[in-house]
Amino acid sequence: MGGARDVGWVAAGLVLGAGACYCIYRLTRGPRRGGRRLRPSRSAEDLTDGSYDDILNAEQLKKLLYLLESTDDPVITEKALVTLGNNAAFSTNQAIIRELGGIPIVGNKINSLNQSIKEKALNALNNLSVNVENQTKIKIYVPQVCEDVFADPLNSAVQLAGLRLLTNMTVTNDYQHLLSGSVAGLFHLLLLGNGSTKVQVLKLLLNLSENPAMTEGLLSVQVSRLPTRFISAHIQRF
Ligand SMILES: *[C@@H]1O[C@H](CO)[C@@H](O)[C@H](O)[C@H]1NC(C)=O
Ligand SMILES: *[C@@H]1O[C@H](CO)[C@@H](O)[C@H](O)[C@H]1NC(C)=O
Ligand SMILES: *[C@@H]1O[C@H](CO)[C@@H](O)[C@H](O)[C@H]1NC(C)=O
Ligand SMILES: *[C@@H]1O[C@H](CO)[C@@H](O)[C@H](O)[C@H]1NC(C)=O
Ligand SMILES: *[C@@H]1O[C@H](CO)[C@@H](O)[C@H](O)[C@H]1NC(C)=O
Ligand SMILES: CC(=O)N[C@H]1CO[C@H](CO)[C@@H](O)[C@@H]1O
């Protein structure tokens, strides 16, 4: 399969190269005029132009991933991530994106210094994480997302996206241990965050609290790190 797949990637690159040039042409020359263009299928920039709501097929997803990997343009990156995220809402696409090696391509974008791109990457990973098999690939990003969530601006969209991803990565007990060092920080966010942040942190803590292996960590935080006022206000709701 490797050989055929490599050929596929090269072909996608060629199609996409042509598409990208055309995109620049369109940006510099304004709207497309009439005339016939030979295009084997929808080009990648069509796939990200927001008007394309259909479910993409494997070939189109491949182009989109290639685009994501090769572009430096933040606007195209963001649109590609949103389109991928929307497509990742469908279970067949979750498998296809994973099989095309798409998870690391999306995952690398959480390193983006652009908060908007980082948020879209987290959202796309979150949709991909609904697939339990995909979670085995997404788990490597969990420690970083944990760190980031505490470094992000309080109540920001990117922070919420990170918390959502962590929540969905803890629906099973498999990766909860990856969060064991973050429990105190989560309680801190619960204390400081606004309503949206609090709700998301509570969902996450609730998942952790159902895992006997995590209970000790949760309890030690309650006892040693938090003001009693805070404990009575929040913990008892559990
Ligand atoms: C971040 O990405 C957004 C959306 O693509 C873009 O509009 C914005 O200019 C970028 N910001 C920076 C600082 O590059
Ligand atoms: C993720 O999937 C939901 C549907 O389950 C969809 O509403 C959302 O827009 C998708 N996209 C992203 C980027 O999260
Ligand atoms: C995340 O998990 C919740 C609860 O299990 C689920 O309803 C949702 O569809 C999942 N996916 C996303 C993208 O939020
Ligand atoms: C985590 O919470 C979700 C709902 O948000 C639930 O479906 C799931 O069973 C929970 N998982 C654990 C291990 O508690
Ligand atoms: C929390 O703060 C964010 C960012 O300021 C805002 O978008 C959101 O609506 C707030 N949520 C609540 C419940 O106040
Ligand atoms: C839940 C889900 O979508 N599971 C999929 C995970 O990936 C395998 C292999 O691609 C699919 O067969 C499962 O349906």
From TrEMBL:
Query: How does this protein lie in the membrane?
Result: Single-pass membrane protein
Q: Which residues form a coiled coil?
A: none
Membrane-spanning intervals of the chain: 6-27
Taking every annotated instance into account, which residue ranges of this chain make up the domain Armadillo repeat-containing? Answer: 56-224
Return the InterPro entries for the record. Answer: ARM-like, ARM-rpt_dom, ARM-type_fold, Armcx_regulator
Superkingdom = Eukaryota
Please tell me one Gene Ontology term that the record gives under cellular component.
endoplasmic reticulum membrane
Entry keyword Methyltransferase: no
Q: Where in the cell is it found?
A: Endoplasmic reticulum membrane; Mitochondrion outer membrane
List the Gene3D superfamilies.
Answer: Leucine-rich Repeat Variant
Query: What main location does UniProt list?
Result: endoplasmic reticulum
**Subunit record text:** Interacts with the DNA-binding domain of p53/TP53.
- Please describe what this protein does: May play a role in cell survival and cell growth. May suppress the transcriptional activity of p53/TP53.
Name of the protein in its database record: Armadillo repeat-containing protein 10
The species this protein belongs to is Mus musculus
Q: Output the lineage of the source organism.
A: Eukaryota, Metazoa, Chordata, Craniata, Vertebrata
